[in-house]
Amino acid sequence: MSTLLEIKSSVLRQVQVCPSFRRRTEGEPGSTSTDPQEPATGAWKPGDGVEFFTQMRLILKKGEGRRGLPCPEVLLRSSSPAPSEPMDPNRGLRALTQEEVEMLYEEALYTVLYRAGTMGPDLVDNQEALLSYLQQVFGTSPEQHSEAIECVKKAKAPTYALKVSVMRAKNLLAKDPNGFSDPYCMLGILPASGTPREPGPHKEQRFSFRKGAKRGSPLPAKCIQVTEVKSSTLNPVWKEHFLFEIEDVRTDQLHLDIWDHDDDVSLVEACRKLNEVIGLKGMSRYFKQIVKSARANGRAGPPEDHTDDFLGCLNIPIWEVPVAGEDRWFKLEPRSSASRVQGDCQLVLKLITTQRDTSMSQRGRSGFLSYLLLLSRLLQFEHRPDEPNSSSWRGELSGPAATLLCLHGAQSDLSALQLAVLHWQVSSRHHQTCTLDYGYLLGLLEDMQAHWEEAASLPQEQEESLADSFSAFSEFALRLLRQLRDYFPATNSTAIHRLELLLKCLDKLQLFQPSFEICPFETELNMDIAAALKKGNREWYDRLLNAKSPREQPGLQRLAGLVELVDAIYEDLQSCYSIYASLFHSIIKIDFFTLTFRQLERLVAEEVWVLTEELSLKMTLEVASQLFELYLSLADIQRFWSSILGRDSRSLALASIHVPFLPAVKLWLQVLRDQAKWRLQGAVDVDTLEPVDNSSKHSSSAATASLCFSHIQELWAYLAWPDPAQAQVLGTQLSQDLCEAAVFYTELLRKKVDTQPRASGEAVSEPLCVVLNNVELLRRVVGQALRGLAWPEGASGLPGGLPRTLLGCTQTLDEDLQREACTVTAHLTSKMVGDIRKYVQHISLSPDSIQNDEAVAPLMKYLDEKLALLKALLVKENLNRVLEALWELLLQAILQALGTNLDISADFCSRFHFTLEALVAFFHADGQGLPLENLKDGSYKKLEEELRLHKCSTRECIEQYYLDKLKQRSLGQNRYGRLSVRCYYEAAEQRLAVEVLHAADLLPLDTNGLSDPFVIVELGPPHLFPLVHSQRTQVKSRTLHPVYDELFYFSVPAEACRRPGACVLFTVMDHDWLSTNDFEGEAALGLGSIGGIVRPQVGGSTRAGQPITLHLRRPRAQVRSTLRMLEGRTNREAQEFVKRLRELEKFMEADP
Known about the structure:
Layout: H1 2-12, H2 49-64, H3 72-75, H4 98-113, H5 127-138, H6 142-153, E1 159-170, E2 183-190, E3 224-226, E4 237-246, E5 253-260, H7 267-274, H8 283-295, E6 309-317, E7 326-331, E8 344-355, H9 359-362, H10 367-382, H11 399-411, H12 416-431, H13 438-450, H14 460-482, H15 484-487, H16 493-512, H17 525-548, H18 555-588, H19 592-615, H20 621-642, H21 662-685, H22 700-719, H23 724-754, H24 766-787, H25 804-830, H26 833-845, H27 852-873, H28 876-899, H29 906-924, H30 932-935, H31 939-951, H32 954-967, E9 978-986, E10 991-1000, E11 1013-1020, E12 1031-1032, E13 1043-1050, H33 1054-1057, E14 1063-1070, E15 1078-1086, E16 1108-1111, H34 1117-1127, H35 1132-1145
Antiparallel strand pairs: 1-4, 1-8, 2-3, 2-5, 5-6, 7-8, 9-10, 9-16, 10-13, 11-12, 11-14, 14-15
């Protein structure tokens, strides 16, 4: 092993591109350095590598959680109840005096006792239950309750009136020739005296304004109302409203007729004139006179002219009108069983009171105000803050409460808009004292918006009270938005839903703003919201700063808190972007994220600039470590902004914040270098050089080293230093440190395995296999880590690749680790060399009588056992390395066996040829092992050539010798000079003409720096040209560029020139007068390709062809192997050929 290591060290010293990292790791980690910034002592001591990398993993984990833009699903982690909102009793409606409470109690009792109309299915139709409920609401004793009821019963009953809106009719009968009708309505209140008699056995007949009963008292003209005539339609639309006083709600009924008008006289005008007629007897005479007078413009006329056609009628008892009123389609009825009618009529009916004998009415308190007070009282009773889930209450009133409000609203003749306004005013005020569900408040605003077309009918007093409620609610909402993070935390889905509904409420308020003559907001509500958010951001930042990094503390103590502050700001910005921003932008068109980011980023930048300036003069390892983490958090904020499409971080206050952190980062990277080595040292110390588990083939220290280097690469990517020039300096130093640490680890492994006890007779060392796997894993991990250290290098980098410096480090380290792997592989296979030679010798000594497969079987069995063990211990890359090493050992062993047996038989060669093919199949393993192109290269070709030459005759070997010389022409080097010649064959004279023209760039072999060259020209192989002798040129003195221009003829047949290996050999020599001549070089030219041999000469020309430039060479190993083969032959021809060549070799220098 020591010899191999010495060889490896000598090879490493020859690396020229980038110095090996091995010589930089001679000292132990933590050794002193000439760098003035190298820390001698500090926050991290030797042996703290585990703690250091644990802290670094926490930093990386924090960075991993900040990759990409956050998802709302990740942040909304809790669905627990939202935080309680502030409750201020003073923000509700003012408290009532005792007198006002008694008056309101009387008003409520009066409403119940004098209710009229039909109760709906959702209302409580039980007077006792309603009265009992009022007793609970107002908290009166039974005696007080009974006394109040008796007092109300003695009061005068209210005056009732029926509001009728005739909206439209549809599908009426066509009475006119054009297929349409001209319908109009006549309607009035039918008193109890006009009620038709009970049906008898005679033909049924209903009351009609045109054909009424002959009995009873006259109907006052003021009780009759008429709509306009709608011409030529079967689906008339009137939308006319009427009010009728009711004398007896229990017996009176509404009667309506629809007629087809047949002339142009205004029915309304006729009714107006007939208001002056009195004393008419009976219903029939009265209404008949209406029609006649209408036709004659007030004058009597014949009754048979222009008779109107009946289209249908309705009779609706007043008592059947629902308490809440109704909007309904009524089916038209005939006036008798013989009448033919069709169609429906839409009416809106509402039963109200016009005079009430209550204290509130007598004091001029409107129904609007009394309803407001009653609703407020009921809300306070129904919704109590001490009940569970009170903040999600959506205004669900009990049956008695809903019934009371319905009765009072109808009796007070409150419109739908007024009811919506009242519910909003009371509920929004109540919400500020006892939280309600914002969805309920939003519903109230939407209900109010749906009826806002009636806003013009609101009295100014009611409009002002509504504007006051808007202002109070917006003020309350702005106070909540200032404390957005407290009341609507981003992690609480319930709170975020409440925020969404609150913003929708504010958006609705803005829709009402243009409708008020007295504007409820001093400025645009959007501006107020933005101002509240800014103020809330500043207050939140100040609280956070005082809690985590108070300015009163010293700079070093503030540093850790400032890191926490920046992390908290980053998390808040994530919440702003993923949760709050979409709500504010989509609902009220405020860019909350940009507003918040700009404000908080500027505040934290100001804080950091001041602190880094203070700490720049106190730079220690502890300060550098905390500043490093602080910078990473600040860089996260910048990257967060840049990751959003269309955002440019150059405009931020943090744009150049990296400048003051540069010294701290440099110092921290130096700490990282030492800590990495300490961590690796500790990992190797406890390593047992056994696989971590069944699925892994490396040991624990390799896993630790891989994790360390991966963390370093991740940390560099996380750092992402923005300045390219500074990034190059930092990256270069970090890459060199990483390479040194990698080589340092391999040296630790080498020392570790050297101290392991070795088992005697063990051919495969498991610790060595583990070390080899460790080195391969390290090579891949560190290579990937180095490629991940790329920095922006601009024009100095390679296109699409790594910066030049980093590329050099990567390549050098890879070469170092590859050599280390080869060294371990050689050490691993060295234990098998003896066995392999033994089995190869067994093959060579096996008698010819046994079969080839029997002779090879022991070797194949041995290889199969060892490679099965190696496959189980090594990863694929290392197994291939070992296979390649074993393959080379086998080839060398066979070559050695052939070399020791020069004069061998054909059977001997056939056996080793069989062995070679069997080994190729074994190592290829049907594509699972080494590739065939790798197996059949290098030594394999040499061995195959040796075997082939052993089978050849002497003359075939001599021909191969010249063929090998011809193959050397393909090498394009010019180390020994060039020779220009021209060769052609003269068929007529049957001779070969060889013209030596000149040479150039010869080697200077004399002491004067020149040579005295001459050229020897000869043909070969000798057995093809036995009668031909060599010829030579003149000596050209003192030149390296001699010019000869000499022509030589060789009388040879053309057939001999066409034989394989036939060539002309040029040997350039340096003539020495006092010693033997020196060898300059040689070149060979195949005769088969010259003019006259490949094609006949044209026109009998004796000089043909272009000059040929030959590069001079020295004999190579392949040529010498043929020569060695001939040396082993004992026949005369071989011995003479070898002897002649040996004489020539005396003049040759050794091939470098």
